[in-house]
Amino acid sequence: MRAWIVWGTGVLAYIVGVLHRTSFGVSGLDAADRYAASPSVLSSFVVLQVVVYAAMQIPAGVLLDRVGPRAMIVTGALVMASGQMILAFTDSLPVAVAARAVVGVGDALTFISVLRLVPKWFAPRRVPLVSQLTGIFGQVGQVLSAVPFLTLLHGGGWSVAYGAAAGSGVVVASAAFLAVSNSPDPGPDSAPRVTFRETVRNISVVWSRPGTRLGFFSHMGTQFSITVFALMWGVPYLSSAQGVSSAVVGALLTTSVVSAIVSGIVVGILTGRYPMRRSWMVLAIMASNALMWAVVLALPGPAPTWLLFVLVIVISVGGPGSAIGFDYARTFNPSVALGTAQGMVNIGGFLASLLVMQAMGAILNAMGGYTFEAFRVAWLTQYAVWAVAATGVLVARRKTRRDAGISPRTWREVRERMRSQRPAREPSEP
Between residues 356 and 50, which one has the greater pLDDT? Predict the structure, then answer.
């Protein structure tokens, strides 16, 4: 029971972290009015946040390997709360941009730290599923930003909404300080301790492992589309280009979270049961995302509401799908370097996200703002990322299998092997 309490408290901190991360996305149009910002300037808020988040991943992983998840989770929550509090009361555009960068620093410390708790507190057979649950339950923070945060924003105003978000960060920091423990073992950590210099030296070693790169490209190709949608351009696209109401926008974002929860459970079970088929799941998620966007963007006008719901459901699978990348990091790296490996993997999706967000902002600015045609062209930038990520997965998969001594099998050999592993049928009663 204690394991679930520790993990649940960490997940609560991650939920609030996602609220902080996505709050600016749902308030983008309000921010444009408050700071008189153009689309390209507006995108710089979130782009800088994601740049800082991505740049902090390896330092955060190194720190995690040294100080443990408890200190990282508490510090991350307090740093994000301070950034949100600054944003609540400043009217200065440069200060507001800097505040979002502070949120990015705290955000970088949180998710990989919560993930680090899982292999310490749960049996190995449960790790893939609980890791998936970590990611998908964390997306409840997106619902909090889409519903109560947005309600506070439109009802109480900018300062009230962002002040309340900052307060929630202080609450979860206190809870993590009281409830989270790095390990169920009260004694010293059984893993060998390494010096800071040795940990930094191991960064190149971790990246040299093909399994780490496989996780990086898996995370890159699956995570970025829903991240760009939820973090920055989804709400302006739905409101301005597709012409849907605020109520429908909230329903779509809520549907995204529900889809992530349901699909995450399925992906977690399949990942644990068929570890040799993880890369095929990654490639299937990329292909389905690309196909669904192609259908919506091919329409000459706004899509019907039902098709927008299908789009959101499909691209939301990318969130839990990206957790497969962390499973690769866990599989192909020793525990003493796991934080560093997870940080490297986490860079993949967020690096792709910031590039797409920045490119979309530039395209929207060049084409006159939040019009249907401008968004239609801007979303096409996603296909370059999918091409790079799919190629990276295929190349890294081949090298990972070679290093692990796994030879490729024909489909016939795979089917015969699966048949041979089925239990024999019991003889029927006469």
Answer: 356
Per-residue pLDDT, 201: 75
Helical axes 69-89 vs 158-179, angle rounded to 10°: 170
Domain boundaries defined on the chain: 2-180+200-400
DSSP secondary structure letters along 169-230: HHHHHHHHHHH--S-S-SSS-SSPP--HHHHHHHHHHHHHSHHHHHHHHHHHHHHHHHHHII
Secondary structure tally for the chain: helices H, strands E: 21, 0
The fraction of the chain above a pLDDT of 90, given in percent, is 38
Residue 94 · residue 48 · CB < 8 Å:
no
Judge whether 180 and 116 are in contact, CB under 8 Å: no
pLDDT per residue as tens digits for the range 143-182:
788 788 988 988 888 999 999 999 999 999 999 999 999 8
Looking at the predicted structure, is the pLDDT value of residue 423 above 50?
Answer: no
CB burial class (10 A; 0-12, 13-18, 19+) of residue 404? exposed
Right CATH number for 2-180+200-400 from 3.90.1640.10, 3.40.50.720, 1.20.1250.20, 3.30.1330.20? 1.20.1250.20
Is the CB of residue 345 less than 8 Å from the CB of residue 328?
Answer: yes
> CA 262, CA 132: separation in Å to the nearest integer?
10
Q: What are the tokens at 3?
A: 């394991």
Q: 405-420: buried (b, 16+ CB within 10 Å) or exposed (e) per residue?
A: eeeeeeeeeeeeeeee
Contact 218, 282 (CB under 8 A): yes
What's the whole-number mean pLDDT along residues 363-377?
90
Do residues 190 and 334 lie in contact, with contact meaning Cβ atoms separated by under 8 Å?
no
pTM of the model: 0.73
Q: How far apart are CA 120 and CA 69, in angstroms?
A: 11
